[in-house]
Every structure is written in structure tokens, then in C-alpha cells.
Design a protein that fits this description.
The protein has five helices and no strands. By secondary structure, it is mainly α. It has one domain: Four Helix Bundle (Hemerythrin (Met), subunit A). The radius of gyration is 19 Å and the shape is globular.
Length: about 190
Amino acid sequence: MKPRGVLMIEHRLIEKMLDVTVMELDRIIKERKADPGFIDVVVDFIRTYADRTHHGKEEDILFKALSDKQMDEDDDKMMRELVDEHKRARQAVKELVEAKNRYAGGDETSIDDITEKIGFLVGFYPEHIRKEDDVFFPNTEKYFTGSELESMLEKFWEFDRKMIHEKYNGIYESLRNSRGSFKGDS
């Protein structure tokens, strides 16, 4: 498998989550009621899987390796666009969380912000994924030797191995900070 294969497999799971999210968005629009728990799950999925795990591999490994290559102007421009798109998605998720918190606090008018941000995300990701799968990944693979691609694939696997520990250490730290010290803390 090549590194782009890993990224494309991750895209398929993101697309499946978007399908479920579209169904929930339709329900929210129809009923004018949001489920804060569902939004929390979507936010966690996007932040942990789509952004930190998937975009992390792209930005921290693939894009970093490409920045050391002599890319043609179109590929370089597209890479910068993809990074900007990642930033826009992060901002939309942040704003979705803020709207969800207002809604959960009793502000029913924030439902419009919730539907707008979810609508942005479910519209954004399919085009972003298409651009990467169909254009960017195939076009930029040519900049790497076979051994460089193998090394990148190993870096992807190592990145994934570290992610589970990072996520759950973060959960522990959050709980500890909100509730005080636990037995075993030094």
C-alpha cells in the first residue's frame, strides 16, 4: 500500500460519518431541534479522526515532505489551498461547538448557526476529499522515490500508534484538571 491509500481509506470513513451527519442535519432543519450529544460525537470525530489523525498525517508528514521537494507551481498552490481548507474546517467546528453550547444553554436561536456550520462541513468535506483523492495525491506521488513512499507509510503507522495514547492522555488530563488530583498523580 502507498501512503495515499491510507489517506483514501480514512476518507471513506469520513464520508460515511458525513452521510449520518447529513441525515441528522435534515432532522434538525425539519424539527428545529438539535441533539447536543450527537453534535458532541460529530465534533469529536472531526477533531480527533478527520483533523488530528487524518489532516495530521497530511500536514505533519506528507505536506512537510513535499515542502522539501521542488514541486511545480500548480501542486504547490494546491497544497497551500488544502492547508487553508483544513483551517476553515477547524474554524467551522469551533463555531459549531460555540453554537451548540449556546443552544444547550437555552438559546434556541442558535439552531440556525448549528445548521449553518453542519451544512458547511457536510458540503466542504466531499469536495475537499475529491480534490485530494483525484488530483493532489496522484499528482504529488511522483515527487517521491519508492523508498521514500515506504518510509512515509511507516511514519503514518507510527503517527496512528501515538494518536490513541495522545487522545486518552488528553481525556485524563481534562478530567484531572476539572476534578483535582487523583490517586497515582505525582
